[in-house]
Amino acid sequence: MDAECSQIEVPAALAAELSQWRREVCVGCGASAMFYCPYCCMPLGVPEGVTVPRVRLPFARCDIIFDDAPKKATSIHAKVLAPEQVRLIDLFTAEGNSNRTLSRPGGSAKATGAECGNEHPGSGEADKSSVLREIPEYDPQITLVLFPDDSSATFEEVVSQNGLGPPEHLTLVVIDSPWKRAQVLRKHPRLANLQSIRLGHPPPSRFWRYHSEGTGCVSTVEALAALAKEVLPFKGGMKSAAEMPGLDPLMNDPFLFFFVRQFAYIAERHLSGAERPMDASAKQRRMEQVRQKDRSKRPKLRPFGPCEGT
């Protein structure tokens, strides 16, 4: 999976574009960020001549159950690129937390979805795009959860077995949190009875964030982009953006617009030939360090037999 990451070089055209992006202060919450505001889910510092795509998912709606730091999560990309279809369910914000989060970008507990910038101009219905604070009830007949558990099947298998309607009538639920937490959330009473689907052809991940689950895992936005492509045959195709020369088909997807630029930005900050956080060697080294640390924390077991003094 990750071995292919180190073989990708940033094309000159993309490197030139990156030099034009600027860190900017968000008018909604005052946070300074590059590419987009992770709290208000709005593009920031877009260079002249660059157009941020509006992506259309092949589903009626995508609900992202969010329980992670906004700056680290790629699911925010989905909200920025498909604001009318993507709804965030914020489980990360604690009531006593005064910091910026998805539900309160300015640190205010009274912030609403529209005030947070989660309703883009012209998006229409605020209740469909605003941030929720708890998992809603879902209709199991029209809802799928993107989650690779033992009971999951590919979208093609689910369609053929369950006779679901067209994809544009379905709701897709995605869990964006650290893996162990995601496994707990998948068993939530409002999610437990929903059908799980998995990727039929998981792509090689280009994600730079460390995880301890080994190869075969992709980031949330990579998974969404891959699933959308698998569902396309059932919709008859989808208009795609112009391809960026030098990047493989996975990286040409308009749904990976911000992911590609973050990848390139991180790659460009490392000297040529130097190890990058998305490289397989870097992830393996980090995994070994964590395992060694975990082993050192394990309690020492007493030897078999009677204890001293008994």
From TrEMBL:
Keywords: Nucleus, S-adenosyl-L-methionine, Transferase, tRNA processing. Its EC number is 2.5.1.25. It is found in: Nucleus. The keyword Iron does not apply. It is an enzyme of class 2 (transferase). It catalyses: a uridine in tRNA + S-adenosyl-L-methionine = a 3-[(3S)-3-amino-3-carboxypropyl]uridine in tRNA + S-methyl-5'-thioadenosine + H(+). Coiled coil: none annotated. Its main location: nucleus. Residues 33-271 form the DTW domain. It holds the Pfam family DTW. Residues 99-129, 275-310 are annotated as: Disordered. PANTHER family: NATURAL KILLER CELL-SPECIFIC ANTIGEN KLIP1, TRNA-URIDINE AMINOCARBOXYPROPYLTRANSFERASE 1. Belongs to the TDD superfamily. DTWD1 family. Catalyzes the formation of 3-(3-amino-3-carboxypropyl)uridine (acp3U) at position 20 in the D-loop of several cytoplasmic tRNAs (acp3U(20)). This is tRNA-uridine aminocarboxypropyltransferase 1. It comes from Durusdinium trenchii.
